[in-house]
């Protein structure tokens, strides 16, 4: 029983309640280890722990999903040795060459996202880094391998992916072409990160193609529906809203715009947002409407929608975010958790949707809003969540999904997002100086790697969380893209040096022919085509400055040469 927060400290939590932070963080850590140790003891190598029967089951694949999803949470909680141990277990045990039908969406956000963020945090976790990190490394190669397994799903006439792919055989000939909107538009964060770290544009290209195809299918009033046929581009479910089936599509437009400094994505989001505000918002609730007519089809709030205030706060729409958060928080208070569906006119749960599977979204929004406002309302939500989860969900073997918030019946399931997201966001909510908040307040977010001449200053631009709460570092993307570009420039220089005769010959050609040739050789060397194999770099020493690399070959150039 910890003391409650002082209400006189409304905007000054840190100075008034500093003494409370430590015990809260310790309590969240002990929740994590209760579930994590139980997973390792009773469920590994299965995907998930079954917290009522104390055993394991495969759910989304067969890749020890909870361990992959929880890996970066270990680092967030400061457990470097366990992070290192698990990273190496995963490298030794996870086999993706398996005859399993996996969700393209879930495999991306949980497996590819989890491995990418663990790769990017490996330096801070004290792992031995291979030369070239963060542009190469074993966890990055695993993420790349997992993502390659998903690529066949994108080979459709529209570029929009199928929902399921067999990890060994590709898309089944009997696979349904109907995919949810989020299943089409939730790839750009992981896939652009992969492309920019590895230098292979394939991933970013397919994610962008899918996004552009989806964008073109919006209705005349600017809305998208819930499920689409990826072959015919026909909308199969025409409910437009911000929750299940759509949610992370909007999230990735905003976060993609921030991570990649990409105006196209931001413009898409703003256009959608205008339609969303116009047609779906009522009293700071967001309803479901028919995508062509804008008429209300379901006046319900879904727990998945609770990410929205956090997203709005990232865009600076604080007033609206705060009001919507209050609506959602009132539902949490009514039930001690968020039911999957809540009927707004009736003020009550919806039949068969009374459960709370330990989702993170409201806590996630609380974290962003606390970061933006310092208002301790958000910490109070954190305390409520902590108490509810302990009281309702804790079992001797972990934490169980709540089947029904009215009578606290439990389900024998602990989804991997409980350790990846719910616990992580709770912890970060109560630790406002954590480096993942991006160097704000007292924390120093930046961290250098590369040794002498190293040029990757990581973490300095904050972190972007994928939709499974896996943090991605924009600075690493920038750094590796720059190295790729420099490598290509170097390759061009070396090619020119090794072909002096041809060059001399070409000098005798007319100016227009020379220009054409040069443009051609540039586009050949810089732009790799989708599917094209990356040729090994002339020198794999990406943390050294450009001039230093030339001197390695015995050719010394000054910086301005
Ligand atoms: C997670 O897998 C992700 O947050 C996803 O975007 C939505 N569903 C769960 C959490 O609720």
TrEMBL record:
Q: Where is this region: Disordered?
A: 496-541
Record: residues binding Ca(2+): 467
Question: Which keywords appear in this protein's UniProt record, sorted alphabetically?
Answer: Calcium, Endoplasmic reticulum, Glycoprotein, Glycosidase, Hydrolase, Metal-binding, Unfolded protein response
Q: Which Pfam families match?
A: Glyco_hydro_47 (PF01532)
Q: Name one GO biological process term.
A: response to unfolded protein
Q: Where in the cell is it found?
A: Endoplasmic reticulum
Q: Which InterPro entries match?
A: 6hp_glycosidase-like_sf (IPR012341), EDEM1/2/3 (IPR044674), Glyco_hydro_47 (IPR001382), Seven-hairpin_glycosidases (IPR036026)
Residue spans of biased composition, Basic and acidic residues class: 500-517
UniProt EC number:
3.2.1.-
Q: Where is the active site?
A: 106 (proton donor), 247, 340 (proton donor), 361
User: Could you tell me the superkingdom of the organism this chain comes from?
Assistant: Eukaryota
Q: What is its main location?
A: endoplasmic reticulum
On whether Glycoprotein is a keyword of this UniProt record, the answer is yes
Q: Where is the composition biased (Low complexity)?
A: 518-527
Into which family does the record put it? Belongs to the glycosyl hydrolase 47 family.
Q: What does this protein do?
A: Involved in the endoplasmic reticulum-associated degradation (ERAD) pathway that targets misfolded glycoproteins for degradation in an N-glycan-dependent manner. May initiate ERAD by promoting the first mannose trimming step of ERAD substrates, from Man9GlcNAc2 to Man8GlcNAc2. Seems to recognize and bind to exposed hydrophobic regions in target proteins.
Q: What is this protein called?
A: alpha-1,2-Mannosidase
